[in-house]
Amino acid sequence: MPVFEENKPLYDLTSFNILIVEDSMFMQNLVVAMLKAFGVGDIMIADSGNEAIDILKITQARAVSQYVSRVDIVVMDWLMKKGSGEDLLRWIRTHQQDSVRFMPVIVLSGYTTGNMTYLARDLGANEVLTKPISANGLASRIVSVINRPRPFINVADYFGPDRRRQEQAYNGPERRITKAEEIKVIRHDRA
After folding, report:
1. Which CATH class is domain 10-165?
2. Are 87 and 49 in contact (CB under 8 A)?
3. Where is pLDDT greater, at 176 or 91?
4. How many other CB atoms sit within 10 Å of the CB of residue 135?
């Protein structure tokens, strides 16, 4: 799905703040150019997962105490020397603050093997994009996290967006004792 239609933006991204985490200056410049063309309001850059953690700590803390915008989406490389994408994604999804923990994450990687894709998904990445990237590919991932946000799942060994991307009808025998419609949802508010 394109971000533009006949040179008119379909989305007003001027209020979006996107953090790019990439150790290659060439890729940084390429992604920044694409995001500027999409009309993204604020673009921050980190050279590593460790630097991204520092930026997120500062921006999220300032947003709580002042009228400063938080990071809305993280677009990150997977393989970096000073703090990998894997480490950063683990840090984001296990963070105590909901504004960090629920943040959409788009992983970019030139080494997108099946195992890496599954690991990124299993650690809570919203989207994975293979390098070399295109403007349409990046735009479609951004549109996906905006238009089709998946509910977050919190179970013993996973926290992140629901990994199922499509609903499929189940044709087998019903083995549940209680029907889904009869289950009460209990919300636990956090302090």
Report:
1. alpha beta
2. yes
3. 91
4. 17
The whole-model pTM stands at: 0.79
Owner of token pair 């947003």: 63
Radius of gyration of the chain (CA): 18
For residue range 69-120, list pLDDT tens digits in order: 689 999 999 999 888 999 999 999 999 988 899 999 999 988 777 788 889 9
What values do phi and psi take at 177, rounded to 5? Answer: -75, -40
Domain boundaries, the chain: 10-165
CA distance 27 to 158: 30
Question: Could you check whether the bond before residue 151 is cis, i.e. omega within 30 degrees of 0?
Answer: no
